Amino acid sequence: MIGNALVVEDERGVRDLVRRYLEREGFSVVATESGAEALRCLAEQPIDVVVLDLGLPDVDGDEVLIGAGKDDVPVVVLTARGKVSDRIHGLELGAADYIAKPFSPRELVLRVKAVLHRSANGTGHDSRLCLGDGRLLIDQVRHEATLDGRLVPLTPTEWSLLTALGASPGRVFTRYELANRLRGYEFSGYERTIDSHVKNLRHKLGEDADSATIVQTVAGVGYRMGLGRDDET
Questions:
Q1: pTM score
Q2: Helix count (H) and strand count (E) of the chain?
Q3: How far apart are CA 48 and CA 104, in angstroms?
Q4: Under DSSP, is residue 130 helix (H, G, I), strand (E, B) or coil?
Q5: d(Cα 97, Cα 32) in Å, to the nearest integer?
Q6: Which domains are present in the chain?
């Protein structure tokens, strides 16, 4: 079994199609048409990835997306809302990927697998990244980040952003590079949301744009990790 997938889709035909393709690939699948039921499943069952339609009959899909993010469960949005503004909104809320209908079931499965792979392995090769003389610890096996001994709660997107920067401290990443690293493919427009994710990440690290020493802004270029790797000093 690859993992436990939760499919949240109110159209039965689409729901059954997605479930069938995921099960062929070895996923254990729980499927529901209800957003409220999806939130219960996330609270009561071990879920590795969610395939989510945003247009649900009871609970707004955004609520499920946010709820999954709080539990650090990656979400692949599958929706008829295909405008660029809709995609940017979903990605800003923490979606790991965004697919507009009509869609290819085979492509969906490949993207779900890619999301799981990125979630399990992070963006670096070391399992533990220690930075700033032990101030910041990024444990990619436990999927945890601690700053000064304090656990930092991160959404999947914030986690991917932090591990990308932490794996290459001092290196300046453009917004475009970070967007491609976080998503694993090019998405025109997503790089505009990187600033929002950096702002949220800084807030959780106890910083803001003026006092940032961990996630630093390089004017006119992008961002870099301001703490050095302990194993490189």
A1: 0.61
A2: 8, 12
A3: 22
A4: strand
A5: 20
A6: 4-121 (3.40.50.2300), 128-232 (1.10.10.10)
